[in-house]
Amino acid sequence: MTPRVAVIGATFGAHYARALRTPSAPAELACIVGAGGRRSAALAADMDVPLRSIEEIGEVDAAVVAVRSALVGGAGDEITRQLLGRGIAVLQELPIHSRDVAESLREARRHGVGFAVNPFYPHLAPVRAFITRTAALQQHSTVHRVLARTCTQTLHATLFVLAQALQGPPPRSAEVFPGRTGHLVRMDWAGSEVDLLIASRLDPDDPDNLAQPLMAYTVSAEDGELQLDHPHASCRWLPRPHVCEGWPLHPDAPSSVVLPPTKEPTIGAALTELWPEAIARALERVLGTPTLPDQRTLAVLRLWESISAELPAPAPARALAPVDRTADLAAIR
């Protein structure tokens, strides 16, 4: 029998709902759960499923909690524990405080159901390829330094990618150098120097915009550099040129190589193709055999909390529609 999943939340939750309506979805969308607001009602109508309250969810195998956690003034943690207490497995969207994750973890254990938190971006196929390639690179070449660029909105997810890509435990602390609209964070990750550049601008009336860069990485190793420019991008390998007596040892070697897949998706294709597949992978953690967050998950969250505690509030800004500069920049020779 196909598992049935309830989706709580109609903002980011809409991506889960749409993913569950694709032919390859690992479960069936059972209902949208909301407080009766316009957005929830519209999403339920668009998905052709009932709109329910928490109490009316009924028989489902799992639930996605995609509403704000207590950390940012929401009811996500309370809803999660209520569902776990009813024997319903839960996939909860980050960010969540490690303290609340630990409490929900105890509730899941008491009732023998699955519980997972979802940083989302590590499940995207291009990010998974970067993680796998970084891990493979470390088997053959010494990694000296990692540069990651991100923003305050996706800092937690950026750290989860690093935790999957790099060897050794996450550091317990970091040096934080605050700026006005961006910050530098420096840390030692089991012997590899990691620098984070964090953009920090926020429109209070439109918090989902101005999240740029989402995440980008450069892994500097003995044999070259591995790059990922954004979570929907192809990886790029830059071999290190070796000079002997003033001339490259391999002059015909490429300066850089785009690794497969070499064609990058449009923004729309990323949302309709890459995102549903990533959501399916995340849901598999709570469907079937119960799984629970491990100590590495809690360690990453604590690192994120320690960094965030030293950062000032994001610089206020207005999220105006950007002008497409592609043609102007491409015309420059």
Automatic annotation (TrEMBL):
Domain Gfo/Idh/MocA-like oxidoreductase N-terminal, residue spans: 4-118
A Pfam family of this chain: GFO_IDH_MocA
MF-aspect GO terms: nucleotide binding
Highest taxon of the lineage: Bacteria
InterPro entries: Gfo/Idh/MocA-like_OxRdtase_N, NAD(P)-bd_dom_sf
Full protein name: Thiazolinyl imide reductase
Provenance organism: Helcobacillus massiliensis
